[in-house]
Design brief:
CATH superfamily of the largest domain: Periplasmic binding protein-like II
Strand content: 15-25%
Shape: globular
CATH architecture of the largest domain: 3-Layer(aba) Sandwich
Strand order of the largest sheet: 2-1-3-10-4-11
Length: 335
Amino acid sequence: MNLFKVFFTGLLKLLVLFSSASVAGQKIDKLVFSGPFSNISYPLIHMMETNALSDITQSIEFVAVNNPDQARLMALGKGRHQTDFMAMPANVAANLYNKGVGLKLMNIPVWGILWMVSRDPNMKTLADFKGKEIAIPYREDMPDIVFRQLVEAEGLDVKQDLTLRYTAHPLDAMQLLMNGQVDHALLAEPAISMALRKNQMMVKKKGAPRIYPSVNIQQEWGRLFKRQARIPQLSMVAMDSVLDKPDILRRFQEEYAKSTDWCLQHPEQAGKMIAKHLNRLTPKAITDSLQSVNMQVVDAKQAKPELEFFYRQLLADKPALVGGQLPNHKFYYQD
C-alpha cells in the first residue's frame, strides 16, 4: 500500500511538471504595450510592473507615446517599436481600422480628461471664451476635435470668435499658461494636476497670479448634446499581432480591468510606480489625476452606442477623422 502511494505521488509530480513545462512552452517571449502620458496608460504600467500576464508571456515592455503621429506610425508597424496593445484616441482607432489596419477596439477605459484652465475665475462656459486666445495641444487631433465640436454646438465660430494657439503636447500648452504667455488653455489630465500644483507653489513663494480649473469639457458635452457627461475619448486596442490569439485577448481584458481598479484604489502608490516610466509626470500629479478623471473600463460592445454617437458628430463635420464611415461590427472586440 505504501509502495503504491509513493508510486502514485511520484506520478502526480511528474504529471504536474510535464503540464507546467507544456504551459511554459506556450508562452510568448514578450508583449509590447504603448500609450500616451495620460491616465489610460497607468494600468498598462501596473500590468508590466506586477507581471500580471506571467501565465501567457515571459515579459512585458511599455513604450511611452509622445503624440498621435507617433501612435499612428506604431500602429502601422513603422519606426523602431511595434506594439501588441495600444492606447489611442477613439477616433484614431476608427480611422486606422477603416483604412485596413488590423486592430480591434478592446474597451473604453477613460471617459474624458479635458478641462479649460484659466487665469480668470469667472469663466464658466465655453461662450465666456469668445474673443480670447486659447492654447490647445494637437491640432486636428484630440483634444482639438472635441473642443471644436462643443464650440460649434455653443453657437460660436472657431475662426471668427476665438484665437487658437496650437502646441505639440499638452505639457507645452500648460507651460504657456504657467509662464503667462496665454491666459487660457485647454488641458488634459494629468497636465491639469501638474499645472495646479505648480501654480500653488508659485503663488506661495513668488506671489504669482493664480490659475483656476474652469470649464469641465465633459459636463459641456453632456449639456450641449443632451447626453451623459462623459466622452468616449480614449480607447484601448489590440493590434494584428495578437488578433488570432483569443486567450491573450481575454487575459489582457481581464488584467487591464483589474489594474485599473488597483490604480484607482491605490492612487499614491500608483503615482510613485507610474512616474518611473512617464518621466514628464510627477507622482503627485498622477495621484491627483486618478482622483479627478472618470476611469471606468467599459467593454467595446457595451461602449458601442456612445462611440457611434461620437463618431457621427465627427462624420458630420470632418469625415476623414474617422476614416469616412462608421467602423463595422468587426471593429468591436467580443469575448
